[in-house]
Q: What sequence folds into this?
């Protein structure tokens, strides 16, 4: 079944990629993680984005990761991230993921040579025309140093280039404009844990969250409250997971997150270079957060 903007909502977990001791992909661990997410109520899976360490894997490894996720998802949508810098590489990845059974791809705004706003619009239009798969726009300017402005996103939606977007930015005025311009045309998903409930209350249809890779249930509860307009209650519930969020993003994701998962009894191995394990200060924060999570029975 083709994924459409009307079917894109709820919690999509940005999962880590488990690794074995020798640094290879742990397919069994990966599939167990996918099943854990879906059993908890996640709407779908987003592998191979930033949390999944896209730049660290070869083309063949990425294709294998997506294939494994599709097998484990048992019909639920798998939307792999595409973090390639250039069009041809991004298209090659998208076609690989389509062949692996992905329901859509989440493609980052072109970076290093980002072009103008019109250039980004043309990039996504040509990308969708060349790829037989729905596309989500992945907007994360703190990593790419560039963002598609709200009117550009509106033009992409009108072109039929995208069915949704992951909005990973703290620019609230731009988020509000984006919801105003395209909230009824595409599915906007929050990519920021601290703003997730507020984004949903303002019109986001769900989120793509990294911390859900270990704690999906609480984010599903927060989503339900925010969607009902009970923002104060959603934010109060979020207090329980805020220490975890603060600690796992103390250094570049997913290094601290993977270490935290081991501390919380869900080992997924390490990270690939250039990422390293967390510094001693961050490790201390992770240990405190893990103890606090146990104390409040976070699950």
A:
């Amino acid at each position: 079944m083709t994924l459409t903007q009307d079917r894109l909502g709820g919690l999509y977990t940005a999962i880590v990629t488990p690794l074995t001791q020798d640094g290879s992909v742990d397919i069994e661990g990966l599939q167990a993680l996918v099943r854990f997410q879906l059993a908890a109520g996640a709407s779908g899976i987003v592998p191979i984005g930033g949390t999944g360490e896209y730049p660290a894997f070869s083309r063949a490894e990425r294709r294998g990761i997506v294939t494994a996720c599709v097998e484990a998802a048992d019909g639920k949508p798998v939307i792999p991230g595409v973090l390639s810098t250039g069009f041809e590489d991004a298209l090659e990845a998208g076609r690989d993921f389509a062949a692996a059974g992905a329901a859509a791809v989440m493609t980052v705004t072109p970076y290093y040579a980002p072009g103008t706003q019109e250039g980004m619009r043309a990039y996504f239009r040509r990308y969708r025309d060349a790829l037989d798969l729905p596309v989500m726009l992945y907007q994360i300017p703190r990593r790419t140093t560039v963002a598609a402005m709200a009117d550009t996103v509106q033009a992409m939606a009108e072109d039929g280039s995208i069915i949704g977007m992951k909005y990973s930015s703290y620019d609230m005025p731009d988020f509000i404009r984006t919801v105003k311009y395209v909230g009824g045309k595409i599915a906007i998903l929050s990519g920021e844990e601290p703003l997730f409930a507020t984004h949903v209350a303002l019109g986001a249809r769900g989120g793509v969250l990294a911390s859900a890779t270990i704690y999906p249930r609480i984010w599903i509860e927060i989503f339900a409250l925010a969607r009902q307009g009970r923002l104060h209650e959603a934010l109060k519930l979020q207090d329980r997971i805020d220490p975890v969020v603060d600690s796992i993003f103390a250094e570049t994701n997913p290094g601290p997150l993977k270490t935290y998962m081991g501390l919380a009894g869900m080992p997924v191995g390490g990270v690939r270079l250039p990422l390293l394990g967390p510094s001693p200060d961050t490790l201390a924060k992770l240990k405190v957060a893990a103890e606090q999570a146990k104390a409040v029975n976070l699950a």
Summary: The chain has a mean pLDDT of 96. The chain has two domains: 5-231, 239-299. Strands lie at 10-14, 44-46, 81-82, 105-108, 135-139, 164-167, 187-190, 206-209.
